[in-house]
Structures are given as structure tokens and as C-alpha cells.
Write a structure and sequence with these properties.
6 helices, mainly alpha, two-stranded parallel ribbon, about 160 residues, about 55% helix
């Protein structure tokens, strides 16, 4: 979203045109908010349960992906999904996503062949040495997060 307006924003900032810079930032914010509302509404309409990982945007901002993380507006999306889910009467759960990229979604073990820590961030695909299943890092994490969410549903979520 931000990238489309990046050039004009840079020009306005270098020319010290505060009013134009403010207008471009407002346009970026409105575009982001509109896209988030459309995306979150679509997800809520198409699903009976939504499970998200407990990723903290603050920790992602400290990596090389800072610009993309801030541009995506993860916290805003999570907030929108939560209130729209509650309003529609569907299940919304935030689950612990620790080790979801390393755990094999087929056999449930953390094999020695899985990507580990920050050094393993560049590894996008890996094969489980236990069961032989091939995984894409992000798809595998999504499957594990969904499985953890379903397990919490089956076990019963305590009412607050």
C-alpha cells in the first residue's frame, strides 16, 4: 500500500512541503484501512472460526522486514478480525505460535531438519526427516496454528 505512494512522498518530503506530506500520509492510512476492512470482512463472512498467531508486531519491526511489517498493519488487522468475529458470532482465538514453523504439521515432531531460530529464516522449504513430508515454512506454520486453535476448541475455551 505504501509503496505506491512512496515516490510522491519522498519528493514532497525533500521539498519540505508539510501540507502535501500530511495529505499523502492520510491517503496511505485511508488506503490501508480500506483494504484491511475489506479483507477482514471477507474472512469473517467465509469462515466459522478464525485463529491467529500471537505474533507481536513490535518484535517484527526490529528485523529486516520492518518496513513490510509496518506497511501491512498486522495489529490493526488482528483488532478488526477480533471485533468483527465477535459481532458476527464466530469464534476468534489468538493461539501461541511458538515453534509452529519448526514443528512438522504431518507427524507433530520438531525434527533436526527443520529451520531453527533467526539463522533459519532464509530456509523457506524443508523436509521432515521423521516422516518425509515436504513443507513450506509459512504454510506449515499456518497448519500448526489452525491445529492448535482446533485443539483449543475441542478442549473447551474457558469463558472469561
Amino acid at each position: 500500500l505504501y509503496r505506491k505512494h512512496e515516490g510522491a512522498l519522498g519528493i514532497a518530503q525533500r521539498a519540505r512541503k508539510k501540507g502535501r506530506v500530511r495529505a499523502i500520509h492520510a491517503k496511505i492510512a485511508n488506503t490501508r484501512k480500506d483494504a484491511m476492512h475489506k479483507f477482514s470482512t471477507g474472512l469473517v463472512e467465509r469462515n466459522a472460526a478464525i485463529f491467529v498467531g500471537n505474533v507481536q508486531a513490535k518484535s517484527m519491526v526490529k528485523t529486516r522486514m520492518a518496513k513490510s511489517t509496518l506497511d501491512a498493519g498486522w495489529s490493526m488487522l488482528k483488532t478488526m478480525l477480533e471485533y468483527k468475529s465477535h459481532g458476527a458470532g464466530i469464534v476468534f482465538e489468538e493461539v501461541n505460535e511458538a515453534y509452529t514453523t519448526q514443528t512438522c504439521s504431518s507427524c507433530g515432531v520438531i525434527p533436526a531438519s527443520s529451520p531453527k531460530g533467526r539463522t533459519g529464516l532464509g530456509i523457506r522449504r524443508w523436509t521432515c526427516c521423521e516422516c518425509g513430508a515436504e513443507h513450506h515454512r509459512d504454510v506449515n506454520a499456518a497448519k500448526n496454528i489452525a491445529a492448535r486453535g482446533h485443539a483449543r476448541l475441542a478442549g473447551g475455551i474457558p469463558v472469561l
